[in-house]
């Protein structure tokens, strides 16, 4: 299902990479400032949805490489998993843990945010792609 | 740091996430289903043991101290409820293996099952009133999806009533939390309890109390807003209705027990009087509704309603003995009710119908099943020496001691009518000659021996629990007594959560 609109095709070529980059920016910025996993997930889902409207669901599946449903599963695991490292330190579950890796600050809230990011991406895309495919089958 | 308070929530969440990650493999999902619920059962035993030892087990999630963060609190009542969640969850997961179809499994039956268990355990363990609301919503979400999985017409019809009324209840709950927060400025239940005593205007507190009562009353399927339950519970697969029957309404009852002992205990004459009448009418309408039904699971559904009345009666009388009776009743009821639903599933598998008029001759063909039915059925009706007898005995004795003759008479009458209902099922399903042997037998696919054993195993386990409770009444009575003592001593809860204060 290609739309064939020249303007949309050209715009999408530029917008999709920008949106994906912007979503990563939002994701990493989110701990103390506006941003975070949920909003970043919506932005990246928007990027893939746009790609799909231009190039059709098969192309988007190829671009994504993994099934969106796998994103949901892995995201949920990361989200729940971020509760556990505190246990190892003998602190209450969900207590934020910070690690300094090569000058970067890594933390369990970041893992949680990445989890949310993947869940939002996965669930929005599952819905959008399924709807398009059903639509195509009926057309 | 006591990990056992949080693990009953985190384990089902992890198991649910894992089975989402393995959505391609039915085998893995089934494995995780059984292993996850077994782990839940194990941690709930751990929690139960450490509550016996310490009284209150507490964890401040994220390390944020009470009353600012979310506190998880387990006292005796919570620990009992979580233990029952573990037992029922495990039994239902095993029962699901042969009974849940491929279609349900690929559409996420197991992740939803885990999510539901996490919601239930979360509601039992949280010490924060807004967090309680969140767990209620988690539970509602999962239960709604489980209810419509399969998408048959009757399921949709039941689900609409179920969702509409439960959303109404959530709205009232949320408004009540808002009002309460406006009055006392905190969401931590222990802190609320401490500050409610300082509020001068008792009328406002009473209004909020009644709002909580209506909201939890709907969730618990108490009179007058109970009709969503019999409309919905007979439509999904049997494993799902068994899980709902055992756990969902009891979360509402638990919330009533928690809130009306800890927070709203300042005008008992007003609030608990309403509860008492609600309890009486719930018992009566439930049992009368059941008498008019001729569908196996519908009869059982109406009996859930009438049994909820007994539990509320224990809370409403508000004497130590009555609370013991109420807790004992919950304990006994969850196991018995789930078991009866599971048995209705086997009968359906063997005979292909839930309609009492078309059933018959089950005892002749499968005498073991008949015996397995009699244990929970007679227990439900309160025949000694099974678990239901002690539960009813304690409650009725408490009501006589409290001098409430009307409710005593109603409770006894309802017990008798329950026996009538159970005899009706026994006579129609097991005893009478099968009406039209060949027409019923033709429609049913033969059940493999292995599947049948997987279905019978949880039933035997739950029946063993019922007999165990009956034979070791004293042991369970002590547990119920300890939790009643804690419920009547809100100061102990407050001190445990907030620390001793001057």
Structure description:
The complex is a heterodimer of chains A (139) and B (502). Chain A is mainly alpha-helical and 139 residues long. Chain A has one domain. Chain A has six helices and two strands; from the N terminus they run αααααββα. Chain A has helices spanning 6-29, 37-55, 57-64, 68-81, 85-88, 108-138; strands spanning 98-101, 104-107. In chain A, strands 1-2 form a two-stranded antiparallel ribbon. The longest helix of chain A is centred in the last third of the chain and has 31 residues, at 108-138. Chain A is elongated, with a radius of gyration of 18 Å. The mean pLDDT of chain A is 87. With 502 residues, chain B is mainly alpha-helical. Chain B has a domain at 267-436 and 445-492. Chain B is 79% helix and 2% strand. Chain B has helices spanning 3-21, 26-54, 76-99, 102-106, 109-125, 129-148, 153-184, 189-196, 202-220, 228-232, 238-262, 268-291, 296-317, 320-351, 362-365, 367-381, 387-401, 405-431, 437-443, 449-471, 473-487, 490-498; strands at 57-60, 71-74. Chain B has a two-stranded antiparallel ribbon. The longest helix of chain B has 32 residues, at 153-184. The two termini of chain B are 25 Å apart. Chain B: Its main location: membrane. Chain B: It is found in: Cell membrane; Membrane. Chain B: One of its GO terms (molecular function) is NADH dehydrogenase (ubiquinone) activity.
In total, the number of domains of chain A comes to 1
Q: Which structural class should the secondary elements of chain A be placed in?
A: mainly alpha
Number of strands of chain B: 2
Q: Can you give the mean pLDDT of chain B? A: 89
* Poorly predicted regions of chain B: none
Q: What structural class results from the helix and strand content of chain B? A: mainly alpha
- Tell me the total number of β-strands of chain A: 2
Which residue ranges of chain A are poorly predicted, with pLDDT under 50 across at least 5 consecutive positions?
Answer: none
Q: What shape does the CA trace of chain B take?
A: globular
Strand arrangement in the largest pleated sheet of chain A: 1-2
